[in-house]
Amino acid sequence: MTTGVNAQQLSVAATTGKDHPKPRRPRAPRSRRAIIATSVIYAVLVVLAVVYIFPFLLQVATAFKTNPDATANPVSLIPTTWSTAALQQLFVNSDFPLWFMNSAIVTIFVTFGRVFFDSLAGYALARLHFRGRNVIFAGLIAVMAVPAVVLMIPKFLVINQLGIYDSYTGMIVPLLVDAAGVFIMKGFFESIPVSVEEQARIDGAGTFRLFWSVVLPMARPALVTIIILSFQGSWNELAQFIISAQSPSLTTLTKGVASLSSGQLGQGNQYPLKLAAAAIMTIPVAVMFFVFQRRIMNNSEGAVKE
Amino acid sequence: MLILLGLFLVIPVLMALWVSFSDWGGNGSPFSGNVHFVGTQNYQSILSGGGLAEQNFGTSLRNNAWYVVLVVPIQTAVSLFLAVMVNRAVLRGRGFFRTAFYFPSVTSSVAITVLWLFLFSTTGAINKVLSWVGIHGPNWFNDPDGILHLFLGLFGVQSGPASLTSSGFLGVTWWDWLAGPSVAMSAFILMAVFTTSGTFILLFIAALQNLGGDIQEAAMIDGANGWQRFWRITLPQLRPTLFTVLTLGLIGCWQVFDQIYTGTQGAPGNTTLTPAYLSYTSAFTNQAWGQGAAIAFILFVIIVAFTILQRWILRERTVSKRRMRAYLPKTEVPLEGGSR
Questions:
Q1: What's the confidence (pLDDT) of residue B17?
Q2: A–B interface: beta-carbon pairs under 8 A
Q3: Most-buried pick from A15, B3, B176, B205 (CB within 10 A)?
Q4: What is the DSSP letter of B315?
Q5: Which residues of A touch B90 (CB under 8 A)?
Q6: Is B33 within the bounds of a domain?
Q7: What is the pTM of this model?
């Protein structure tokens, strides 16, 4: 069909469509063909879902296998002999608990820090009128555009120069503010009506008080977003910890498991050990994901509408 | 707080810029008296030195370019396909499928890489499954052969024509530029599709749900079949999301680091070396800080250039619907052509 005619028909059809309300779901399985089509879709989706999920099931299963079993039966989901040897070695004979603790420390500080600083900076950019505000905002956008890997050497230079290399400070402080978080908070604060704040100001609240007791409680949805993003971001962060610390006592999970993967503990493949480590380090973000699932999905929906 | 942002993001860049023009060796402050300005020497040794530095850089660019050329279109297509499927109106269990496809995106790149090394090991799950259908799987992470070279090998072409092998660019012969991603890199490419498609599926689903049903209905009344409706109605309406996905994909794909650090460290035969990882090893391992910083800045320029190029190619234009249709299916072609 030609496009010209088609466009005309479209508009005509659109109006007639409104006159005669049609079933909203056009692909409802009314005919046999539709049923077949639906089953095909389901089949394809189920197969693909299995492809996406199976590796993780296999990961958990392999964690309970013995070394020879993991190599001999790489696909089976049930270990021939259940073994917790890998887990034992991980928790008793390695630094794994230390890594876990380091990751937890960093993640907690970074998450709280981002909630605090991102909202403060976002509020300042959204509401306070000060000189150079637009310049700072432009700078923020520019910073967001700089890819993280490009900043590895620059960040190291500053950390080194400040004398905080190889310390928690050096690992945490550079992550305390993120441009994207400030951006999200600024956007949210701008959507809150100014009148609420004016009311509080009339009642005699100062700027910080206003921010802390009036505005911040209203920003809870955005804060949850920040919490999710910073938790995931700092728990999964690798590059920042590589460049900011070298002593074994400051190794985080990402760094530690990466070193495991290059065969640090014992000889042989050690697949159960490595996969157990990888599975355990996934648990916190997985829990976070399932708790805030609805919100995570909705977030990206919100992001598209911008 | 904004000072913090400036301290860790603006000043560092300026410092690194200085380092990339200096002969700093990693000891002491880069601003002390015995560090000298060496002009563009670091950049020269990477871009035209004729030595190992140039060859490594050329190889890393080759590897990453193929990575981009394959990952960006595949992940976009896969996520669009899955989003359309999941979005089918009658589908029950939509939430389950969304979760299944999104889950790989929340896990850390380190954990996924460890899992991938297991799945794609020589006696691993993937080769086992392949053997069920009679295929003898490759050694994946130990196989440095480019897949295009392997493909040509099937027809008995073992080495390139002299016109391609005798000259090259950045210390890599044209024949090697055309090798395609190595088998090892292909495993990383599959991994990238696996981990990133989840996020993009969500973006596409959200966009699909924002589309009104009216136009679809109208087209159906006109007798357009499902295929036609997708290409001519749905896809043009998804244009903004398509831009977002392509841009994010393009930027992300030039930054491959975690996987290489965890998995292969550039092996086998430097075929999984990427500019990001090369920049790291040059600076932190080999103490060639000037070169490392220079690579980082070149990478930065590449990413910015591609982002601008893409913005320009895919810019909003007031075009007739017909022109837009003629134009849309081509969106991925300029990317492929430009990345090399």
A1: 84
A2: 276
A3: B205
A4: -
A5: 25, 27-29, 38
A6: no
A7: 0.82
| Cβ <8 Å between B202 and A300 | yes
Give B169's strand partners.
B172
**Is residue B3 included in any domain, yes or no?**
no
Interface predicted TM-score of the whole assembly (ipTM), two decimals: 0.80
Q: What is the C-alpha to C-alpha distance for residues A45 and B81, in angstroms, rounded to an integer? A: 10
User: A82 vs chain B: nearest CA distance in angstroms?
Assistant: 19
Residue B108: name the closest of A279, A59, A58 by CA: A279
The tokens describing B217, both together, are 């209905």
Q: What are phi and psi of B265, to 5 degrees?
A: 50, 35
Q: What residues have CB less than 8 Å from A25, skipping those under 6 apart?
A: B89, B90
Average pLDDT of the residues in A81-99: 87
Question: Is residue A18 predicted with pLDDT exceeding 50?
Answer: no
Of B109, B209, B276, the CB nearest to A236: B109
In chain A, what are the domain boundaries? 95-261
Of B90, B121, B262, the CB nearest to A38: B90
Residue A298: pLDDT band by 50, 70, 90 thresholds?
Answer: low
Contact between A300 and B203 (Cβ < 8 Å)? yes
Residue of chain A minimizing CA distance to B274: A149
Which residue has tokens 């046999």? Answer: A32
Chain B residues within an 8 Å CB radius of A147: 251, 254-255, 299-300, 303
pLDDT tens for residues B10-46? Answer: 777 788 888 888 888 777 677 776 777 877 888 888 8
B4 assigned to some structural domain = no
DSSP E strand boundaries for A176-294: none
When CB atoms are compared, the residue of B12, B86, B221 closest to A155 is B12
- Closest alpha carbon within chain B to A6: B222
One CATH from 3.30.1330.60, 1.10.3720.10, 2.170.150.70, 1.20.140.160 for A95-261:
1.10.3720.10
DSSP H helical segments within chain B, as ranges?
Answer: 2-20, 41-47, 52-87, 94-106, 109-119, 125-132, 147-153, 162-165, 174-177, 183-210, 214-221, 226-229, 235-237, 239-253, 258-262, 275-280, 289-313, 321-327, 332-339
Domain ranges, residue B308: 42-339
Task: Indicate the number of domains in chain B.
Answer: 1
pLDDT at B331 over 70: no
Query: Kind and range of the H or E element at B330?
Result: none
Tokens of residue A20, six digits: 């005669």
| Residues near A72 by beta carbon (within 8 Å), at least 6 away in sequence | none
